Amino acid sequence: MSVTNTSGGKPQKKNAQMATIEENGPSTHAREKLQRLLNKNMRIRMTDGRTLVGLFLCTDRDCNIILGSAQEFLKSKDTFSQGEPRVLGLAMIPGHHVVSIEAEADILDDTQAFGVNH
Amino acid sequence: MVMKSSGEEDDAGWGLGIPEKMKNNANWVDITHDFKSSCKELSLGELLHDMLFGLFEAMSAIEMMDPKMDAGMIGNQVNRKVLNFEQAIKEHAIKVKDLSLPELIGIMDTCFCCLITWLEGHSLAQTVFTCLYVHNPDLIEEPALKAFALGILKICDIAREKVNKAAVFEEEDFQAMTYGFRMANNVTDLRVTGMLKDVEDELQRKVKSTRSRQGEQRNPEVELEHQQYLALFNRIKFTRLLLTALIAFTKKETSSVGEAQKLVAQAADLLSAIHSSVQHGIQSQNDTTKGDHPIMMGFEPLVNQRLLPPTFPRYAKIIKREDMVAYFGKLIERIKTVCDVINTTNLHGILDFFCEFSEQSPCVLSRSLLQTTFLIDNKKVFGTHLMQDMIKDALRYFVSPPVLSYKCCLFNNHQAKDYIDSFVTHCSRPFCSLIQIHGHNRARQRDKLGHILEEFATLQDEAEKVDAALHSLLIKYEPQRQHLACLGTWILYHNLRIMIQYLLSGFELELYSMHEYYYVYWYLSEFLYAWLMSTLSRADASQMAEERILEEQVKGRSSKKSKKKKKVRPLSKEITMSQAYQNMCAGMYKTMVALDMDGKVHKPQFELDSEQVRYKHRFAPFNSVVTPPPVHYIQFKEMSDLKKYNPAPGSADLYLAASKHFQQAKFILENVPSPDPEVNGILRVAKPNFVVTKLLAGGHKKETMV
Fold first, then answer.
1. E strands, B438-481, where?
2. Cα nearest neighbour of B87 on chain A
3. Which of these ranges, B180-184, B253-257, B592-596, has the smallest mean pLDDT?
4. Are B280 and B227 in contact (CB under 8 A)?
5. What domains are defined for chain A?
6. Contact at 8 Å (CB) between B668 and B604?
7. Is pLDDT at B443 greater than 50 in this prediction?
């Protein structure tokens, strides 16, 4: 999976959103950072303590996130099915239920998108 | 930038939830803050996504933390531990021995309720398998409960097998998924019924020992114990009888169906006793303050929550104990009716039986049992007759075609035999499907009836060809006899029946709008029933012709037989009924037209469709049929045009005409000897309709809407 490149050469009609990204000058940096995370594994903890792991596919201003091939992990305690993930598939996590977001370190190293200090 | 390393918090918190693979290679880095602040930079409504991922794909995502979509959410909101069977035993949350009588009764009743809820179309995981005991009966030490748990599992297993085999269910009827649960397959049926019988005998001894003796002072405690033992005894016996009856249905002999009927009748006798002792069982601990589900010992509604697909209706609403007995009562009644099918030998009779049974919208289990009883392992009817022979009998009964008559030269003509045999063989599959269709639920039936018309159209074509071939053969040998349109008439009859059923089911399912009624009724009265009547009388005539020939042959040898004996024509009932129906429909058609004239029928403003489009759609399946030819909208408009009468009738004339039709229908039906419920049913409609249309014709209450 290659990081999506926002440079030209794509059919214009195919993605109107891309066009807007390129047009919006000042905050392109933030967009690029997010772009580089697309199709990467992401781990999101939700307000009820569950954790979802899946491919980052889509987000918006309110930080609603869509994960592909998501798997659900329960919080470790008080459940008998420890460690067994449940396959959810495509899942959208509303922004206000997102507690924390994590990405894999090596991806961050490669893309240099987010400053990582570890 | 605030960056947390994937340090302590993770390992303590959710690290445990991640499988080894994930844990090893992933070095997770928290990017929450950075991510969120980047998101803020996006403009309102903007989506950041990959090229290949668009809004369309996004739509199919399930929304987390949405109570309607997120099945996993609920388990986390309940403030109690969800334990599986083994864990519950370890934590002593559940007893596997020394259960009190009220506990046993309560558990069994709840199990019955779960069983019924499953049969009504919920998943096993949310019903029967919310009972922890059935997860592993081997761990139960209490013999009564162990036998009961095994019995329930066996009942589920056989019911599932039957329903699967009959294949007359859709997802709305039945969930066949077993989620890998073990259905007591390691124990034989015989062993389970044996165990139940042992428990039953043991309980019977207890019941006897606590029974009141004459002259003895009754201790109320002993009396209560007696009642409870009796309640338990009845439940175990009921389970055993139900299971044995279902086992009987899996056997191939027809005699076992009669046995099953006897068994369910015995089970039905226990129901009132079970009903009156429901209060002896423990009730669930109703802690419903937080919208939580009531919890019973031994039951955990959430135990299988993780097995369900990502989106799944939350709780299956388990039916109440009081309703459980009534449901069993009805189920048993249905099963008893199913058993009666083996007393019907004629194919037409069987078809009618299936139609009638289906009209009560029976449950999927009884429907499936009927299917599997009819065609055992899809080969022979009731396990004994060949479908081909049934069809030949039906033909003889309906049109008495010369080719199937023993007295006809064609009967032993091998070429004729080839013709008729191959035709009958071709018939058997569509007729089996037709019968199978009647096993589906009512809404699906309509859809499938529309499709099977295509197959019958092909049969019709073949029937006509075979008729012609047989006729040319016959006139060579017996020039005075005819073989015209015999088989064709028979197929046409079934064609018409299917078409009528298709249209009528639209009324039952409330598919038509009021303003559509008039052309549906027109199609029925002017067209289908008219065709049906002429088909029936043709069949009747052909029967008579055949009988006459037979009589002549008999007379030739001995003139003993008196001609006076007038037999009741076998088809006369059907002819009468279709006349009545035709009149009813004609009456309705004229009433609808008249109502429309008076502006009483609300007609929508057609924007995207028109009456023609609707008409075409309503009768679309009929286009595949050659005889009777479909009537197209233009034709219909021409044929039903009132202007062709001079002077054109007004609404009052039409009401009057309609009332005459209803009167006629009433008259016909009242003269039916030995009226069955069907006749009485239409009579009940015909009478008031007659009165109302008469009133309307007289201009009564013109302004009201019916």
1. none
2. A80
3. B253-257
4. yes
5. 11-107 (2.30.30.100)
6. no
7. yes
Q: Does this complex have an ipTM over 0.85?
A: no
Domain layout of chain B by residue ranges: 85-211+220-340, 583-705
Segment B43-73, tens digit of pLDDT: 888 888 888 888 888 888 888 888 777 777 7
CB contact under 8 A, B65 and A47: yes
Tokens for B655, please give them.
């009401």
Residues 276-315 of B with CB under 8 A from A: 306, 310
Ramachandran category for residue B98: left, alpha or beta (phi over 0 → left; psi -120 to 50 → alpha): left
Residues of A in Cβ contact (< 8 Å) with B64: 46, 52, 91-94, 97
pTM for the whole structure:
0.79
CA of A62 vs chain B CAs: smallest distance (Å): 7
Cα separation, A102 vs A41, in Å, equals: 9
Which residue, among B48, B63, B86, would best test binding to A if mutated, counting the most A CBs under 10 Å from its CB? Answer: B48
Q: What DSSP state is assigned to residue A52?
A: E
The H or E element that residue A115 is part of is none
Among A14-28, B435-449, B505-519, where is mean pLDDT lowest? A14-28
* Residue A55 main-chain phi, psi, to 5 deg: -80, 130
Cβ under 8 Å to B: A residues 36-65: 37-39, 41, 43, 45-53, 57-63
Task: Give the strands of the sheet with B380-381, arranged side by side.
Answer: B375-376, B380-381, B385-386
CA distance B54 to chain A (A): 8
Compare CB distances from A60 to B1, B4, B46 and report the shortest one's residue.
B46
Nearest to A73 among B18, B47, B82 (CB): B18
Answer whether A90 sits within 8 Å of B26, measured CB to CB.
no
Query: Facing residues of A92 across strands?
Result: A66, B63
Going by their DSSP bridges, the two strands A65-73 and B47-49 should be labelled as unpaired
Amino acid making up residue B597? M
Render pLDDT for B650-671 as a digit per residue (tens, 0 to 9).
Answer: 888 888 899 999 999 888 888 8
Residue-wise DSSP of B384-440:
TEEHHHHHHHHHHHHT--GGG-TTSGGGG-HHHHHHHHHHHHHHHHHHHHHHHHTTS
For chain B, the 3-state helix, strand and coil shares in percent, each to the nearest 5, are 65, 5, 30
- Whether residue A61 and residue B39 make contact (CB cut-off 8 A), yes or no, is yes
For residue B336, give the H/E element and its range: helix B321-339
Chain A closest CA to B40's CA: distance in Å? 5
Query: Where does residue A69 fall: left (phi above 0), alpha (psi -120 to 50 degrees), or beta otherwise?
Result: left
Residues 22..41 of A with a Cβ closer than 8 Å to B: which? 24, 27, 30-31, 33-35, 37-39, 41
Six-digit token string for B504? 């009528």
Which residues contact residue A104 at a Cβ distance below 8 angstroms, ignoring those fewer than 6 apart?
A40, A41, B26, B27, B28, B29
Residue partners of A106: CB distance under 8 A and separation at least 6: B27
Which chain A residues are closer than 8 Å to B65 by Cβ?
Answer: 46-48, 93-94, 97
Q: Which residues of chain B neighbour A110 with C-beta distances below 8 Å? A: none
Rounded to 10 deg, the angle between the B220-250 and B189-209 helix axes is: 160
Q: How many angstroms separate the CA atoms of B132 and B582, rounded?
A: 58
Which residues lie closer than 8 Å to B518 by C-beta, 6 or more apart?
B589, B592, B593, B596
